Amino acid sequence: MTDEVVLRRAVAADAGAAAEVYLRSFAAALPTVVRPRTDDDVRDYIRDVVVPLRETWVAQAADAGIVGLMVLRDDLLSQLYLAPGWRGRGIGDRFVALAKERSPGGLTLWTFQVNEPAHRFYERHGFVAVEYTDGSGNEEREPDVRYVWRP
Fold first, then answer.
1. Whole-angstrom distance, CA of residue 129 vs CA of residue 9
2. pLDDT tens readout for residues 76-85
3. Which of 15, 17, 89, 151 could form a disulfide with 66 if both were Cys (CB 3.0 to 4.6 A apart)?
4. Could you give the CA distance from residue 47 to residue 16 in angstroms, rounded to a whole number?
5. Where are the domains of the chain?
6. CB-facing half-sphere around the CA of 148: CA atoms within 13 A
7. d(CA 78, CA 80)
8. For the chain, what is the radius of gyration of the CA atoms?
9. Which residues contact 29 (CB under 8 A, 6 or more apart)?
10. Which pLDDT does position 63 carry in this prediction?
């Protein structure tokens, strides 16, 4: 089994696999966060909105298919998820480098306060926490933090 992974723009045929990466990653990384939408709602949203209407990137492993997902919208990095078992292989680093290349003026993102591994990851990439909320502004009603990267 090879670990070769290619980052590329998502196409319609990737939506199902990308949704599964999101669902598995969210469940593994954020077990205490209650998702307000069903798995099928998430699948529909990724198929009908995210892939066709957002700048959606996937990480495709030669022997495993889609193992990562990143969504950009202007300077907002709105989703970055890796399949369980594919973290720690440099894919997230490559996604962040790509996001910085695509948005050279800076990036912003939100992550949940309970997601301490994400805080460490983004801080390692030069992001700075600039705002903490009580979660009243997100669907999950989960306290979150806004990070900003400026070149």
1. 28
2. 999 999 999 9
3. 17
4. 7
5. 5-149
6. 7
7. 7
8. 15
9. 81, 115, 117, 118
10. 87
Q: Could you give the 3-state DSSP secondary structure of residue 15?
A: helix
Integer Cα distance of 125 and 118 in angstroms? 11
What single-letter amino acid sits at 105? G
SS3 content of the chain, % helix, strand, coil (to 5): 35, 30, 35
Q: What is the dihedral of CA 117, 87, 27, 19, to 10 degrees?
A: 130
Place of tokens 């009580």: 134
Per the CB < 8 A criterion, the answer to whether 75 and 108 are in contact is: yes
CATH topology classification for 5-149: Aminopeptidase (3.40.630)
The three-point CA angle 143-101-45 to 5° equals 50
Q: Is the pLDDT of residue 1 over 80?
A: no
The owner of tokens 């990143």 is 70
Query: Are 119 and 143 within 8 A, CB to CB?
Result: no
Give me the residue label for tokens 């948005």. Answer: 103
- Rounded average pLDDT over 121-141: 96
Q: Write down the pTM of the prediction.
A: 0.93
Mean pLDDT of 66-72: 97
How is residue 141 annotated by DSSP?
-
